[in-house]
Amino acid sequence: MTLKRFWLSWWWDPERHGTFIMLSPWWATSTDHYGRESICAAVLAHDEAAARLLIRLIHDNKPDDIEFRFVDEKAGGWEPFGKRFPRQHWMVWPECVTPVA
Predict the structure, then answer these.
(1) Taking the CA of residue 63 as centre, how many other CA atoms within 13 Å lie in the half-sphere pointing to its CB?
(2) Could you tell me the pTM of the whole model?
(3) Gyration radius of the chain over CA positions
(4) b/e per residue, 58-67, with b = 16+ CB within 10 A?
(5) Contact residues for 47 (Cβ-Cβ < 8 A; gap 6+)
(6) Any idea what the Cα angle at residue 29 is, between residues 28 and 32, rounded to 5°?
(7) Hey, is 38 helix, strand or coil?
(8) According to the model, what pLDDT value does residue 97 have?
(9) Is-contact 69 10, C-beta < 8 A?
(10) Which ranges of 1-101 does DSSP label H, i.e. alpha helix?
């Protein structure tokens, strides 16, 4: 089964969810009035349920209560990088497995 590309966002609360480590592209985009950070990320997964599970598993506390803002499947050649979401040297994505110069 081919992996699909997903663009997703969730509210991250470090006190409840713990820290997370993710090599896929991700960015902190804003903070809400509760102090949670909005995280946007690109992931590869078989389906939406697997994409959501991946986000749960990257957190220290493996939280069941992650509030997703959206989980959108993207077309085959889609890349998450752009002016608002610049590529960083540590990000691993199919088209950019070599470091940024």
Answers:
(1) 18
(2) 0.87
(3) 13
(4) bbeeebeebe
(5) 4
(6) 100
(7) strand
(8) 43
(9) yes
(10) 14-17, 48-58
What strand order describes the sheet that includes 4-12? 26-31, 37-45, 4-12, 67-74
Using alpha carbons, select from 34, 10, 8, 21 the residue that is nearest to residue 60.
21
Q: Is the per-residue pLDDT at 96 higher than 90?
A: no
pLDDT in tens, 33-88: 999 999 999 999 999 999 999 999 999 999 888 999 999 999 988 999 999 999 99
Among candidate residues 46, 45, 41, 50, the one with its CA nearest the CA of residue 12: 41
The angle formed by the CA atoms of residues 3, 78 and 48, to the nearest 5 degrees, is 40
The beta strand positions in the chain, using DSSP E, are 4-12, 26-31, 37-45, 67-74
Instruction: Pull the structure tokens for residue 32.
Output: 């809400």
CA distance 75 to 72: 10
